[in-house]
Amino acid sequence: xxxxxxxxxxxxxxxxxxxxxxxxxxxxxxxxxxxxxxxxxxxxxxxxxxxxxxxxxxxxxxxxxxxxxxxxxxxxxxxxxxxxxxxxxxxxxxxxxxxxxxxxxxxxxxxxxxxxxxxxxxxxxxxxxxxxxxxxxxxxxxxxxxxxxx
Length: 150
Prior knowledge:
This protein has one domain (27-132): Fumarate reductase/succinate dehydrogenase, transmembrane subunit (3 helical TM bundles of succinate and fumarate reductases, Up-down Bundle). It is 62% helix and 0% strand. Helix 1 packs across helix 3 (71-99) and helix 3 packs antiparallel against helix 4 (103-130). The chain is mainly α.
């Protein structure tokens, strides 16, 4: 009794020994390492915001302004932002590679994912490092109460 198996549905041709950098392997390693680091960063973020001090009732604009005035928390938030966006973008890239059936479709979807990740990283990083709760020259009636003493 002989049976044959149908060829697997795969968008890529299999080559036995490909020269160069194995991007899939490094993407796989990045997902594992960034996932572990993200767990630490996220639980640290949640602990400081929800458990330390007055807890959830203390979360307001002044709390965020005070936190973003500290370079340690700026870098903490930027590391969390970068790792999470790249981690999510890499996961979406993997889904596109698995489920998009045409080469053009994969290219368009992966380009859209890359553009979204880059734009969000740039905007998020700018917000964290240029955040000023008390901008000079702003009308005093629009400023938070802790800025009016300036």
